[in-house]
Sequence to fold (406 residues):
Amino acid sequence: MRAHVQAGDGVWWSQAGAEATPLVDALLDQLGDIGAVRAFCGLTFNRRLADPPAELSLVSYGAMGELRGASAAGRLDVIPAHYSVLPRLFAERTLPGDVGLVQVSPPGPDGRCSLGIGADYAADAVRHSRTLIAEINHRMPATAGTDGIPRQRFAAVVETDRPLPPAPERAPDVVDEAIAAGVAALVEDGDTVQIGVGALPAAILDGLSSHRDLGFHAGLLTDGVLRLVDKGVLTNARKEIDTGVSVTGTAIGSADLYARLGEMPVAFRPASYTHHPGVLARLGRLVSINSALEVDLTGQVGAEIAGGRYLGGVGGQADFSGAAARTGARSIIALRSTSGGASTLVPALRGPVTTARADADVVVTEHGVAHLRGCPLAERGRRLAAIAAPEHREALLTKTPTEGSP
Fold:
């Protein structure tokens, strides 16, 4: 690593299951000799990044996974940026981009290595990096959708044969299932769905098992998508573009999911495609389904900060919610009505606005569905208070916006 990374360099690496952990660990081990380095990463499962070395200045689009620890310790700089803008930030050199650490598949017959389950921002960042260092993992599947990287493009390589890490995830509970039932009723046969990762998204995907001819276009692909494929629900047959193919940037899930990607009709595309406004505008039946930390009584969505701590990020929520609300079918925000006993439906957000109130068509909790599209502010407040936890409704009703309020 010392031969290719110098003090003052900007380094980035792939995220989640595609993270080149052996290379990242080597960088962390050698920083004392290399000197100060600025680094960008997304979702990470690497516990060492919760308490990074003093020489490492971490930057990300949010505080996901172990980056929450770094954020709590004041060791993470969060750049509030739509996911669709990350490719531009790499191109402009705003994000660290001198050296890229990637995990790839073994080279194919054409001598190219696939980014496998992690195309997303990596496929865009590769184009602007001076130096690439690769972990060639013999268990990384070669995936379609993005051009491979020529083997000779790598300045150095380490070969491994390690399993891809599964996504840490709790099982859905009865609250998740109640929310999922409300969301499922809003999705129509033939819609193209975007959804994230976690227990609630898993429950929502399972709740769609009686639908027909659903499509999929999202930044993340999970085991819930695989289950819908197996049930014949997710066919992509009615998509306006990429017909017959699921489109994603990253896969996060189980060993079974990773093993079966090669047989699934799925294309792994860079963020410059998956989140591009022009691409999303062509999906006329797009339904975005996103989670939140809190929603205020006008419909503004907060998905970044709770209790004064950075716990999320802008990510792709605003990209997909905006497209679904304006040119697609419907933008849905799904969340539990309480967190730690406090209401997640609040008079005013306690953090930044992640998704504007004009881009939240529907909000769903375990207590019901609030339709907001075309709804005046005062009525929005009443509808949102009605799906709050019963013990919080009366107090919220006293704080609803009045007629004519801004």
